[in-house]
Amino acid sequence: MTDVAHEPITESPAVEKSGWYQAGGHVAAFALVLALLGLLAWGLVKVQRGQVKSGMAPDFTLLGFDGRKTTLSDLRGQVVVINFWASWCPPCREEAAYLEQTWRKYQDQGVVFIGVDYVDTEKEALAYIKEFDITYLNGPDIGTRISQAYNIQGVPETFYVAKNGELHGLKVGPLSPPELDEKIDALLAESYP
Amino acid sequence: MLADTGLVVLFIAFLLSLYATLASAFGGIRNQPAWVESARNAAVLVFPLLTIPVAVVLYALYVMDFSLAYVYDVSNRAMSPFLRLTALWGGQQGSVLFWAWIMSAFVMLVLLRKWYRDRELMPYVIAISMLTTAFFIGVVVFITNPFTRLWHLPGAQELTKSIFQPEGAMAFVPQDGQGLNPLLRHFGMIGHPPTTYIGFTGFVVPYAFAMAALITGKSRQDEWIRTTRRWTLVAWVFLSIGLVLGGRWAYDVLGWGGFWGWDPVENAMFMPWLTGTAFLHSVMMTEKRGMLKKWNMILIILTYALTLFGAFITRTGVISSVHAFTKSALGPAFFAFIGLTFVGSLTLLFARWETLKSEHHLESFLSREAAFVLQNMLFLAIAFAVFWGTVFPLISELVTGTKITVGPPYFKKVTGPLFFALVLLMGVAPLFAWRKQAARKLGRAMLAPFLGSLAVTAVWGYLHRMHPLSIGGLWLVSFVVLTVLAEFWKGVQARTSSRGENPLTALGTLIRRNRRRYGGYIIHLGVVMIALGVIGDTYFKQETQTTVARGETLTIGDYSLRFEGLREYPGSDGRDVVEASTHLYKKGQHIRELKPRRDFFIVQEQPVTVPGVYSTPGVDVYTMLVGWGASGGQSATFKVYVNSLINWVWIGSLALILGTLVTAWPSKDSKRQASYVLKPRSLGLDPASGD
Questions:
Q1: Which pairing describes strands B553-556 and B559-571: parallel, antiparallel, or unpaired?
Q2: β-pair partners for B615
Q3: pTM for this one?
Q4: Is the minimum CB–CB distance between A155 and chain B shorter than 8 Å?
Q5: Residue A158 dihedral angles phi and psi, to the nearest 5°
Q6: pLDDT band at B13 (very low <50, low <70, confident <90, very high)
Q7: What residues pair up with B542 in beta bridges, in sequence order?
Q8: Which class for B658: exposed (0-12), middle (13-18), buried (19 or more C-beta within 10 A)?
Q9: Residue ranges of E strands in B103-175
Q10: CB-based contact, A172 to chain B, within 8 Å
Q11: Which residues in chain B are closer than 8 Å to A89, comparing Cβ atoms?
């Protein structure tokens, strides 16, 4: 008889406790799901905004792998091609040779190429630069500040900046001849005071 | 006007699927069978109705009706009729329609085949599956409609896309279309979307049954698991085929010599496969022992949500990927639907949490049950690691303001050991008995395969002294293969000695009598073969990139490649081809000519590298033409990979499909037959007891 009397006393706290645990677990599961949905929503909003497409090109200063420092706003009067790339990106390899070849063709005509290395390791990036014998300015996007300012969606992406500093076009995906030449010719033809 | 017919019928299908959702839910809640019957009729009708817009799009692609924006975007006159038809899933609009169409086919088949079996569940099976179908059809109708036309507004530079004629606009029919993305013109990419879609949409069947079981409180019986087992297998095997075709496409077309890059888009497909595989295994625990019921629910919800999540991230670009997918307005709609699915499923699950109690407890850590639990945890751990790596860029950007992507090294390091443990478990788990396994007996069963694997490993280790890391992997593969083969051997031997059958007959009968078991073993063998391919890819890959003049030779490992010259000619489907002629030698011995190419698609201005591959079970020599000198093809640059064992990935995949066929093929006597069933108590319960 004492057993029976004792039973509720020993049993019920345990049941209650497991009930609390369970409720806590369920709340945690919901919190997790909601956090995930929040994250996706935030990502979605960013994507829907898309790349910066018009207006003044966001200014930045890039410290090159070779120690050279370049600030975009100092380059007024010149046509600037900003190419976002990474050594781990296969489509970037497709356009690398064409980019370098075009740079060599235009380098004395008031055109500046800037390679922004996106989320990469220095060793691989330098190997890539060496592999394609790239001679234009290239530097890492430290803290992904530049790619966030341009809100790039992937690599490769190429932005064209006109002589007056305005964005005049964007190419998503690898460049192939002769589109880069044509675009640069068109931008060079624009008058600038 | 055919396109108008397609549009109208599409809209009717949308209304009908909405009606089926509401009517079945109403009929279920109010217990009015007439409404459910009516909903069922409507649901069955959606597939034939959707077939009409699908046929119209196919016809438009076939006759090149460029007045439709979709046809203009994905096809052109230079494409062959077959390729034009496959463009149905070559772009956003067509592929979502195709998706909805396949889903409606699944729903129709379920309603035709299972109607008399699970009557209590049916109202909600219809409601859940038709709600999903309605969502996809709705997306086709309102967001990404394949019947959108091209219009020319006076004074406008660019064409306007709209379903209905904008005011003052003139209909515009271009002379030619833009053509399918050249990268997608490959058998892998032609077969990958349909198989993937069948896999993705197929999971709606077990999901709908699971949710129906929760809603009706029938979840305490496990009937829904028995009903959907084959359906799940079908979805799973198609998802597997889709993964393999995607990998094959990457290997043949993307030109980096590999088949898996841990790209978000690939991960998106891999995650539901992982949880789906876990689900396929854990349902066995419920069937035989009445255990892991909560797990099953969690796994099927997760699998289904991950298929939606996969569709979401591949089609919206929320997680940036090197795959270039078009951005679209699909994002918010998909987001809302994923949210609804997740929150709704969880709410239901927690409401019925108490009814999903296990009927047995784990009796021993050395038992089939324990092995299943461990296996489930490993699958989930891998799925979580992949998920974390996939969304990490988003998380890091939110938390630290810096976007950090994690590449293949992260995935390899984190999932490698887990996969190792999983494959090992796959080898030994089938030897475990239900409830409790005597350690001594287990040791005896494993002894011969273990010694055999040590012998194989010793030989291998000696031959490949320079790759010590590969030895562990090879030991694992040989051990698992030998344990599985030993199982076959034991079965065959028992039959030959007791019945005097010859070994081949015995093998045939053995497999026929125990389809699930031996089909499962064949699938396991396939997985081990794939693991062998991965080991080759991880440890034995060699690569080089060299520029050679005509007549010169480049060397890689045992192989050398002599460059003979370049040829340029116009190819089919609107491309210019530059083809290199090279001769492959192994240790000085001529093997054959290889012709790596670079195809330039004129309209799309896009080059595609077509590798020249010499392929054997042991090794693939994979050559790519990277570039050539300006001086009339006197020199060329080649990238050459020597990929060891990679063919085992494809061979293993075929074994996996074969094993699934053995397991899932309907047979008359398979329903009543089961090798060993510990009857779960739930089967004895009063079926009428609700909650």
A1: antiparallel
A2: B620
A3: 0.83
A4: yes
A5: -125, 125
A6: very high
A7: B642
A8: middle
A9: 149-152, 160-162, 170-171
A10: yes
A11: 322
Q: Any idea what DSSP says for residue B611?
A: -
What is the token pair recorded at B96? Answer: 């979502």
pLDDT of residue B328: 61
Q: Within a 13 Å sphere around the CA of B662, how many CA atoms are in the beta-carbon half?
A: 23
Q: Which residues contact A107 (CB under 8 A, 6 or more apart)?
A: A113, A136
- Name the token pair of A129: 């630069």
- A20 burial level (CB within 10 Å; 0-12, 13-18, 19+): exposed
- Opening angle at CA B298, ends B292 and B299, nearest 5: 85
Give the span between the Cα atoms of B610 and B600, in whole angstroms. Answer: 11
Give A34's contacts in chain B (Cβ within 8 Å): 343
Residue type, B498: S
Tell whether A40 lies on the interface with B, counting CB pairs under 8 A. Answer: yes
Q: Helix, strand, or coil here: B431?
A: helix
Cross-chain Cβ contact A50/B318 below 8 Å: no
Interface of B with A in 235-274 (CB under 8 A): 254-256
Residue with tokens 């293969």: B481
Q: How far is CA B448 from CA B451, B484, B503, in A?
A: 5, 12, 20
3 state SS for B195-264: HHHHHHHHCHHHHHHHHHHHHHCHHHCCHHHHHHHHHHHHHHHHHHHHHHHHHHHHHHHHCCCCCCCCCH
Question: B508, B495, B513, B509: which is closest to B667 by C-alpha?
Answer: B513
Is the CB of B331 inside 8 Å of chain A's CB atoms?
yes
Residue in the structure block whose two tokens are 């008399």: B116
Q: How close B86 gets to chain A, by Cα (Å)? A: 24
Q: What is the rounded distance in angstroms from the CA atom of residue A87 to the CA atom of residue A124?
A: 6
| Per-residue pLDDT reduced to its tens digit, A96-152 | 889 999 999 998 998 999 999 987 888 888 989 998 899 999 999 887 788 888 888
Write out the two tokens for B295.
């797990």
What backbone torsions phi and psi does residue B266 show, to the nearest 5 degrees? -70, -45
What sign does the CA torsion over A151, A153, A158, A160 have? negative
Is A35 buried (19+), middle (13-18) or exposed (0-12) by CB count in 10 A? Answer: exposed
| Whether the bond into A178 is cis, omega within 30 of 0 | yes
Q: Is the CB of A143 inside 8 Å of chain B's CB atoms?
A: yes
| pLDDT the model gives residue B317 | 64
Beta-carbon-side half-sphere exposure of residue B633 (alpha carbons within 13 Å): 12
Nearest CB to A47 within list B318, B342, B353:
B318
3-class SS of residue B560: strand
Please report residues of B whose CB lies closer than 8 A to that of A94.
607
- Phi first, then psi, for residue B349 (nearest 5°) are -60, -45
What ipTM does the predicted assembly reach? 0.74
Cβ atoms A151, A115 nearer than 8 A: no
Tokens encoding B342: 């997740």
H and E: helices and strands count for chain A: 5, 7
Q: Which of B251, B320, B380 to mutate to test the interface with A (most CBs of A within 10 A)?
A: B320
Q: For B530-540, what is the mean pLDDT?
A: 88
What does pLDDT average to over chain B? 85
DSSP letter for each residue of B300-357? HHHHHHHHHHHHHHHHH-SS--SS-----THHHHHHHHHHHHHHHHHHHHHHTGGGG-
For an interface test with B, the pick among A30, A44, A116, A142 (most B C-beta atoms closer than 10 Å) comes out as A44
Between chains, do A119 and B627 touch, taking CB under 8 Å as contact?
Answer: no
Cis peptide before B166 (omega within 30 of 0): no
Are residues B404 and A43, on separate chains, in Cβ contact within 8 Å?
A: no
pLDDT tens by residue, B390-430:
888 888 878 877 767 777 888 888 888 899 999 999 888 88
